[in-house]
Amino acid sequence: MSASEIPILRLGTVLLAGLGSELDDKTAVLFADELSRQVADTGARAVVLDITKLDVIDSFAARILVEIATMARLLGARVVLAGMRYPVAITLVELGLGLPGVLTALSVEHALKKLSTPESPRERPGGSRVR
Amino acid sequence: MLGERQRAREEIARVVGAHRERIVAAWIVAQEGGAATAGAVGGEELREDAETLVSCLLEALTSPVPVEGLVARSAPLKSAVTGLSHRWARIGVSATAIARAVFSLKDSCAAILAEETPDLELRLDATELLCRIFDDAALLTFQSYVDGREEIIQRQNRQLLEISTPVVRLWRGVLAVPLIGTLDSGRAQIVMESLLKGIQEHEAAVAIIDITGVPTVDTAVAQHLMQTVAATRLMGADCILSGIRPQIAQMIARLGIDLSEIITRSSLADALTAAMRMVDDLRPAEEARSESALIP
């Protein structure tokens, strides 16, 4: 299996990855694979996915994002989706996908700020979720 | 049958052509006497309208256009009739009065026909044909009147959509949408889009949706609000719902709508206070401290 095309940067205990304008099925699967390995290897406490450039999303890609969040949580890291464009947000809501268990932030900067605060009940799988 | 109809048509054309002036004059007298259009349409204008109508009718009669659906098929006659309807409608003449005016033109033509056509059978055929043409014309005035109204309603609807969803910036990182009027799915969609666009542009951390001006909340409206809140959360912002009046709160409770996921405040002021606290929490401590040091 070839490595993911999406570069993953390591900033201390945070892993940062910037997604392109499209997330096709193959790239998404490879990326989830690579990311889980890196989280386990580096013992990262958080993953920030910069999706500012992403302007198209489908249900498969959305599911992969939720899977990434679940998997990272199992490995002890929080996942923040940063900078979602409004058309993507509308698409997700219309598809009925609220991305449960995923933290969101306006930008990478906000994401890092949010990560510096303790975990809120909303992100915990047992707590209330974004619907 | 066809021959008779053709003869009747030619007869109308002959009589109307020969006595245009009399028809126009009789019609104007009828209009000025009639209460419906009296005062609304000036004498000059009446004459002009009558002459246009009569000459277009003549043109249609002498053209090769078949008698069936003459009004709809003859372009000049059609535009003359719809033009009259639009113009009169604009100055406040009712649809009935416009149709009646067209009928009274038929009466003037029929009166002349009665005097000028000695052959009884031909007169009968011609009058029948005349009736049919003017019935169509009157129906057309009515239709174009309704169309005109419909267009105005559509335009106002669009304008209402445009003006009714302003997104205002209340504080650094705080946006508000004051909603006024009933929320249908079309409006809710536009509100959601403009709010999300605003969040993206201003990097706003908190969005306040104020529903003080929304008269009722049903399950559909609540659904739209929940969707908007879910979308703002996906973008990384938080949403506060404010301006829930007691009746609305009762209605929400009675309908069993679950808004527990949404932060709610009773007034916009309370919502703004909450929003400012939330925005402040997001800033690093040093920044907040250094700023408060500047304000004595």
Write a short abstract of this structure.
Chain A has 131 residues and is α/β, with parallel strands linked by helices.
What radius of gyration of chain B results from the CA coordinates?
33 Å
In terms of quaternary structure, what is this?
heterodimer
DSSP helix fraction of chain A: 25-40%
CATH superfamily of the largest domain in chain B: Globins
Number of domains of chain A: 1
Task: Characterize the structure shown.
The complex is a heterodimer of chains A (about 130) and B (about 300). Chain A has helices at about 25-40, 60-75, 85-95, 110-115, and strands spanning about 10, 15-20, 45-50, 80, 105. Chain A is of the alpha/beta class. Chain A has one domain: STAS domain (Transcription Regulator spoIIAA), CATH 3.30.750. The model of chain A is unreliable at about 125-130 (pLDDT under 50). Chain B is built from twelve helices and five strands. Chain B has helices at about 1-20, 20-35, 45-60, 70-75, 75-90, 95-115, 120-165, 185-200, 220-235, 245-255, 270-280, 285-295; strands spanning about 170, 175-180, 205-215, 240, 265. Chain B has a five-stranded mixed β-sheet with strand order 1-2-3-4-5, with helices on both faces. Chain B is rod-shaped, with a radius of gyration of 33 Å. The termini of chain B are far apart. The chains are: A alpha/beta (about 130), B alpha/beta (about 300). The interface of A and B includes residues 82 and 86 of A. Chain B: Pfam families: RsbRD_N (PF14361), STAS (PF01740). Chain B: Keywords: Phosphoprotein. Chain B: This is RsbT co-antagonist protein RsbR.
Name the descriptors.
heterodimer; A: 131 residues; alpha/beta; Transcription Regulator spoIIAA; 5-stranded mixed sheet; 5 strands; B: alpha/beta; Globin-like; STAS_dom_sf (chain B); RsbRD_N_dom (chain B); RsbT co-antagonist protein RsbR (chain B); STAS_dom (chain B)
Set down the secondary structure blueprint:
The complex is a heterodimer of chains A (131) and B (296).
Chain A (H helix, E strand, L loop, with lengths): L7 E4 L2 E5 L6 H18 L3 E5 L8 H16 L3 E5 L3 H9 L8 E3 L2 H8 L16
Parallel strand pairs in A: 2-3, 3-4, 4-5
Antiparallel strand pairs in A: 1-2
Helix pairs in contact in A: 1-2
Chain B lengths: L1 H17 L1 H14 L9 H20 L7 H4 L1 H16 L4 H22 L3 H44 L4 E4 L2 E7 L4 H18 L3 E8 L5 H16 L3 E5 L3 H10 L7 E3 L2 H15 L2 H10 L2
Parallel strand pairs in B: 2-3, 3-4, 4-5
Antiparallel strand pairs in B: 1-2
Protein name (chain B): RsbT co-antagonist protein RsbR
Keywords (chain B): Phosphoprotein
InterPro entries (chain B): Bact_StressResp_Reg, RsbRD_N_dom, STAS_dom, STAS_dom_sf
